[in-house]
Amino acid sequence: MERSYAEYVPAIKAMSDETRLKIIDMLSCGEMCACDILEEFSISQSTLSYHMKILTESGLVNGVRDGAWMRYSLNKEKADDVIAFFTSITCEKDDCICKKCKSMKSDNRCC
Amino acid sequence: MERSYAEYVPAIKAMSDETRLKIIDMLSCGEMCACDILEEFSISQSTLSYHMKILTESGLVNGVRDGAWMRYSLNKEKADDVIAFFTSITCEKDDCICKKCKSMKSDNRCC
DNA sequence: AATACATATTGACAACTATCGATATGCTTG
DNA sequence: CAAGCATATCGATAGTTGTCAATATGTATT
What we know:
The structure is a homodimer of 111-residue chains. Chain A has helices at 5-15, 18-26, 34-39, 45-57, 76-90; strands at 32-33, 61-66, 69-74. Chain A is α+β, with helices and mostly antiparallel strands and 111 residues long. Chains A and B meet through α1, α2, β1, α3 and β3 of A and α1, α2, β1, α3 and β3 of B.
């Protein structure tokens, strides 16, 4: 089975930034609007908007407009999907890509 | 509780690349040497060495010299640690950072 | 319609990343 | 020790990222 690693890259990239990790954590219990998220950081409004765009485009965060505000929330399904993907590529498995290694020996060593 | 998001950034950054995700997958069942990993990709030897450095410096991959070869393996503890961190920041929790949000209402909405 | 507020977009820029070819280092074997 | 193979490092380069100030857009209120 060929796994589609590239499919997960945008979400993992979205998580590979300290600011965005904190935002994900902040959204784990419910919705927050941009202005309240902004208060927790020492970054400009445009920078936060940039981070929220990366998070929403990655699918990890949902954003809905509510009048003048944007309400952001965590897309739990997507987050769980990423976690499941991680778990799958870091666990031994019967159809593992490494089984294709020509010189792999019986003790799981090659070379 | 203040979480140390920054602590996990190098490992997540290491995972945010298609090539390195595939390498992690290849190492999930056992050790492989650089030359065998290289065969699975269309990249130069120096580029692979660069990726292996990022993976080992992040702690996700262990590299040990074995004569002329390097034997790489997944650091399962580190991988599990990252997964546990993800799980923790994407799940509701009593000590959640979002609970500090001034305007958070009883229905977990703010604004 | 004018003003104020919330958020998004733009343009600029410095820092970082992925890549390569060339070269260096380290190990093994004749 | 010389040659050859495995891996690492270096220097260059094109592309990406995170940041800001300025500006634009969208919504609510007066």
